[in-house]
Specification:
It is globular, with a radius of gyration of 18 Å. Strand 3, helix 4 (84-96) and strand 4 (101-105) form a beta-alpha-beta unit. The chain has helices at 3-8, 27-40, 56-68, 84-96, 121-129, 151-164, 177-189, 206-216, 222-231, 235-255, 269-278, and strands spanning 13-18, 45-47, 73-78, 101-105, 135-140, 168-173, 196-200, 260-264. It has eleven helices and eight strands. Strands 1-2-3-4-5-6-7-8 form an eight-stranded parallel barrel, surrounded by four helices. The protein is of the alpha/beta class and 284 residues long. Helix content is 47%, strand content 15%. Bound molecules: flavin-adenine dinucleotide. Residues 48-49, 51, 76, 78, 103, 105-108, 120-122, 139, 145, 147-148, 154, 157, 160-161, 170, 172, 199 line the site of flavin-adenine dinucleotide.
Length: 284
């Protein structure tokens, strides 16, 4: 199934993200995680692509496992350190496994260098669209991409992806929904009308939150910072508070008209299970 069909229907849904193992030997464990998450029945599962194109084959293997469990897969694909032949061979593998959905990304620069044939995600989107009947998503940054001079420039650049054929956008992690609502107005002003899927991460450890903010440039709103500080030394309390905070964000997003929310689950099925449990009367 193409994810755009799912995003365009009336049903409210939750999707989630998995990352592939670093070593082939850990694939069995990852496959176990796939079937545990599949039992919770998310709308779709996205599978990340290792930085710089590492573990590309693992992404396709996990995406296939996701679909074998009856859940649509969204395979991430980056173009740093890559060329047309490598991308074409991944597209062929995806076609062979009947995976119809790709999140097309540039990927983070490695030592400040691109080292690849496409300089931006928009060129990759165009290439994918001209080599198969894929539904293609792109990344969006409600707080601006770290390399952009500002949000306006970033939105202008996001427009290139839309013009190249992106069907929907998935956002970087947000901890403050008002940042997203503000961003939505800016997207509409730029005539960007594709569905936007907000990305929510239930934070379950103080170390994790610091790493994530460094990597993504996401800012912590004061009410969330207070939670992290209060429970930093009590891992179980922080986990419970992190799940409750993410649940609150999701309920607020649904109340404000978002129909699909993407959860960055960090390969922990119990976390998406807890959130879905909290939403049992809200998402049926
Ligand atoms: P682009 O859209 O190419 O944007 C990169 C920068 O270039 C931005 O500053 C943008 O404003 C600017 N820009 C874009 N087009 C133009 C243009 N035509 N002219 C001038 N400037 C332009 N990384 C991974 O390695 N693997 C993953 O699986 C992965 N999954 C992700 C999932 C999501 C939802 C998100 C939000 C990010 C993910 N990333 C992943 C990280 C992503 O690869 C990085 O954020 C990367 O730095 C930018 O990727 P992009 O696709 O947004 O690039």
């Amino acid at each position: 199934m193409k994810i755009i069909e799912l995003l365009n229907n009336e049903k409210t849904s939750i999707s989630c993200e998995l990352f592939p193992p670093k070593h082939g030997s850990e694939l069995q464990n990852a496959l176990g995680i796939v079937s545990e998450i599949a039992r919770i029945k998310p709308a779709y599962i996205s599978i990340t692509y290792g930085a710089g194109g590492s573990e590309a084959g693992q992404t396709v293997k996990l995406a296939k496992a996701v679909q074998d469990n009856g859940i649509p897969a969204l395979a991430h694909l980056t173009c740093v350190k890559s060329d047309e032949n490598k991308i074409l061979s991944i597209l062929e593998e995806l076609k062979k496994e009947k995976i119809k959905n790709i999140l097309a990304l540039r990927g983070d620069l490695i030592d400040g260098k691109l080292d690849g044939v496409f300089s931006h995600a928009s060129s990759l989107v165009k290439f994918i669209k001209s080599h198969g009947d894929f539904c293609v998503g792109g990344a969006a940054y409600p707080e601006g991409h770290p390399e952009s001079k500002g949000l306006d420039e970033d939105i202008e650049n996001t427009k290139y992806k839309i013009d190249a054929g992106v069907d929907f956008l998935v956002t970087q992690i947000i901890f403050d929904n008002t940042v997203l609502y503000n961003y939505m107005f800016r997207l509409l002003s730029a005539r960007i009308y594709v569905p936007v899927v907000p990305g929510i991460m239930p934070v379950t450890s103080a170390g994790q939150i610091i790493r994530i903010c460094e990597l993504s440039g996401a800012k912590l709103p004061p009410q969330f910072r207070a939670i992290v500080e209060k429970f930093a030394d009590k891992p179980e309390a922080l986990k419970q508070a992190g799940i409750a905070y993410a649940t609150g964000q999701i309920i607020d997003l649904i109340a404000n008209g978002f129909k699909n929310i993407h959860i960055y689950t960090m390969n922990r099925p119990e976390i998406i299970g807890d959130i879905m449990g909290n939403l049992s009367e809200i998402i049926k």
